[in-house]
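Here is one chain, start to finish.
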Amino acid sequence: MTESQTTQFKSDFLKILHERGFVHQCSDLAGLDELCHAGPVTAYVGYDCTGPSLHVGHLLSIMMLRWFQKTGHRPIVLMGGGTTRVGDPSGKDESRKILSLEQIEENKASLREVFSRFLTFGSHVTGSGNDARMADNAEWLAPLNYIEFLRDVGRHFSVNRMLTFDSVKLRLEREHELSFLEFNYMILQAYDFVELNRRYDVRLQMGGSDQWGNIINGIDLGRRMGAPQLYALTCPLITTASGAKMGKTAQGAMWLKAEMLSPYEYWQFWRNTEDGDVVRFLKLFTELPLEEIDRLGALQGQEINEAKKVLATEATALLHGREAADQAAETARQAFEAGIAAAEGLPSIEVPRAELEAGIGVLTAAVRASLVASNSEARRAIANRAIRVDDVVIEDEKAIVRLADGAETVKVSMGRKRHVLLKPV
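Its structure:
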């Protein structure tokens, strides 16, 4: 990408994405810019239905769809009701577990809720405007006739070329099994692009950089099957300043559904951003103007914490709404600044009242609260004076956690920033 290409965009969409750091690869940047400048374009991102929630690692492509719609274009969220039955080998060392059709449908229904937070969906009765649409590739993949598909689509694919793709090479080089089922995934994903072009005039597929080979396959298949020029645009796979994978923590994935990760915990995830990532994450995961981000990025020393709070509140507001974000920020203020022992809104787990009144070991309490992954990790935390119960440092790994007289909860803490309430039931 040359300097002249990046500074003279005609389309608002590519100008915004470039300025905020979303653009990693594009099959034809100048051509896509002309297309987006000429009028509304339809683009899609595909998501398989392997679980009930997406996580923060998916957020970059969702934000791309959001900016796409905000700049006047038509986004399509493609649910992989069909491809989930196969499994994408990209970036994986082993085959996915095959899910039942019922599990896939349940996951698909659960995922719809997340996208409605970021995109405006419509009825599409008139077929006009730039309302988002949700499609499901099971609609065209499930009824396929295998012989006809091989004849009409499969003949356009070279096995020699497919063997050169990173997603395949990685598995073969490590001598990990790659099933014929998974080998077909890239053909099905390529066919999705062509079918979406035929049905909805989709011209652009977006996704993470690990999907580059699959998307290019779709462009090539479209050319061979007489589709108009198709385009690919990928975003980088985000790692933190310390090299950690975005959205993955010692406590597990940072989910985008409140039932799996509370707004407060989500807020805390962003609040704990490393100093070196604050400006980059403000650009990618909020809609704050760049001038405001530059101002926040200029903060030094302890003041950088104010920028982190802004990041946490703005990112949480996009997903959970402004009220939940402000409440999470206030809960954090109470818990960490005002020193309130049991601030309203802290994440909580339910514990049988009789068990809590009788007392449970502090190691067990820390593990059940998901503050640590194991008893041995809890012992190390206690040795480092990192575990507190109702704001009292625990120094004995054999200590017992009990519900105090007249109390409604017990607060178990790990360090200064992570707190969980044990609620008797």
